[in-house]
Design brief:
binds iron/sulfur cluster, alpha/beta, single chain, 5-stranded parallel sheet, 6-stranded mixed sheet
Length: 346
């Protein structure tokens, strides 16, 4: 079927009501930017799941970064989007204004240059992300060890998707299928989602990020409804088994651990932590267990799990805007609330 026919089918669909979830922040952004919800029939609903790494990072983690930034001879190094995420009492940008040492970088490897130029300071990288990003931290760690750099640590909040999707499926929300995460699938391979597809009799379609690729994925989900199958429509980047080299490097330095997700809580085996033998490079990641949010009215947890739309939140577009975010989902350019606000997705 060509894209015109697919678009027409999805616009005119008049069958049973269906809800599909995307669990990749880049898909969330692409769906909004391409205006896909406005193309779909009212009977096909797209829900954004926990696919934005910043959005699922708990306040406890932000609090730890703030504390580290205020310690003597310590500097926190982070990507820019984490700096505005509220902790339980303040965000990193407020800590910076109080004298906390925080450096924003575009690449984690910039930390090596910083650490080599200032050996009296311990540089702590805020390492958040999913299966896509963990290999980068493994490469970074390999370099740190090779170059015998003693003043770099990682504060990790690394997550893995399958256990989180498993938890979502058990939470009882209406989900008829998943747009499987594109970037994550490049590393894990499409087969990663087979056990979940079979366990819950739900289709998983691996999709690229262009508008027409997403429409083709949604069309496939409609056609596969009720079938526990994985379909890979992103074969230019995703294989059945993924990137074995990247997985081996990750397994050299990291091991599965329980992880706490913002709004969901602790999920067994849903994270990756540095192995015990590399604990010297860890800034205390395993102690982060609380999900204490600052603004109790923030519904990030319900938004991340698909139980609420951002528009259902009483703070949306009022007290909470991208300029004044009250929750992580409004901060990140992969967050659902941000995209509902920017692109008027409703
Ligand atoms: Fe949280 Fe703001 Fe989203 Fe409401 S609109 S759920 S306060 S991020």
């Amino acid at each position: 079927m060509n894209i015109t026919d697919i678009t027409e089918f999805l616009s005119n669909y008049d069958g049973e009501e269906l809800s599909f979830m995307e669990v990749c922040g880049t898909h969330t952004a692409a769906i909004s930017e391409n205006g896909i919800p406005s193309i779909l029939s009212k009977k096909i609903k797209l829900i954004s799941g926990p696919g934005c790494p910043v959005c699922v990072t708990v306040a406890d983690y932000i609090d730890r970064l703030c504390t580290l930034a205020l310690e003597d001879n310590t500097c926190v190094v982070t990507f820019g989007d984490l700096i505005r995420v509220p902790g339980s009492s303040s965000a990193l940008q407020e800590t910076k204004s109080k004298g906390g040492r925080i450096r924003m970088v575009y690449s984690p490897f910039e930390i090596i240059d910083l650490a080599e130029k200032d050996t009296d300071t311990t540089y702590v990288f805020a390492a958040v992300g999913f299966e896509t990003t963990t290999p980068i931290y493994a490469v970074l760690l390999e370099k740190i060890i090779e170059e015998n750099i003693k003043n770099i640590r990682l504060l990790t909040a690394l997550k893995t998707m399958p256990a989180a999707i498993d938890t979502l499926c058990q939470m009882g929300g209406r989900i008829d299928g998943f747009i499987a995460p594109g970037h994550v699938s490049v590393i894990t391979g499409a087969n990663e989602f087979k056990p979940l597809a079979e366990k819950y009799n739900l289709p998983f379609v691996v999709s690229g990020f262009k508008g027409e690729e997403l429409l083709a994925a949604i069309y496939a989900l409609v056609k596969l409804k009720g079938q526990g199958k994985v379909l890979n429509l992103y074969k230019s980047a995703v294989t059945d088994t993924g990137n074995e080299k990247a997985k081996a490097l990750v397994n050299k330095y990291f091991e599965p651990c329980d992880a706490v997700w913002r709004g969901i809580g602790k999920i067994a085996n849903s994270g990756m932590a540095l192995k015990k033998e590399y604990a010297v490079y860890d800034a205390g990641s395993r102690e982060l267990i609380h999900d204490n949010v600052k603004n109790k009215k923030c519904r990030c947890g319900e938004v991340i799990t698909g139980f609420s739309s951002p528009c259902d939140c009483p703070l949306f577009a009022k007290a909470c805007t991208p300029e004044n975010p009250q929750g992580a989902c409004m901060v990140s350019n992969e967050g659902s609330c941000f995209h509902y606000y920017i692109n008027n997705r409703g």
